[in-house]
Design brief:
This is Gram-negative bacterial tonB protein. This protein is an alpha+beta fold. Helices cover 40% and strands 27% of the residues. The longest helix has 33 residues. About 14% of the residues have low confidence.
Length: 139
């Protein structure tokens, strides 16, 4: 009978300890997801402009001032920005050979105040990197 009581107490202690560790691990995992600052390039549900990508392009075109770009030919750049969990744009960058074109592309996107619908991964809103290739003929 003594052996049975000792085994029961040990097993009971083991199960209590196992549950406590599992609960703590789950809480830490949720906390990491909540404070995650990682920027994702691939997600289950990508970020999108609420009125559609064509509306975003039209707003960009309206904000873009060709007179601010010094060029007589075809210019290309890649515009990248991060769509935050609240739908705002941050870390706006343009990479291309013409600096005036890059600066104007950044300015034009920065003027768009409509918030995006954020990306989602595992049901959580996450930061998402968005890329827009630009090619404009200035002739």
């Amino acid at each position: 009978m003594k052996k049975l009581i000792i085994i029961s107490v040990l097993l009971f202690g083991y199960f209590i300890q196992a549950q406590e560790v599992a609960g703590t691990t789950d809480l830490e995992e949720l906390d990491v997801r909540k404070n995650n600052t990682e920027i994702y390039n691939a997600v289950e549900k990508p970020a999108y402009f609420p009125t559609g990508i064509n509306d975003f392009r039209q707003k960009f075109a309206r904000n873009f001032k060709e007179k601010n770009v010094i060029s007589n030919g075809i210019e290309k750049c890649e515009l990248t920005f991060v769509i935050e969990r609240d739908g705002t744009l941050t870390d706006i960058k343009a990479s291309g050979t013409n600096q005036s074109f890059n600066k104007e592309a950044i300015r034009a996107v920065s003027k768009i105040k409509t918030k995006w619908i954020p990306a989602e991964l595992d049901g959580h809103k996450v930061r998402y990197r968005f890329r827009v290739p630009l090619t404009i003929n200035f002739k």
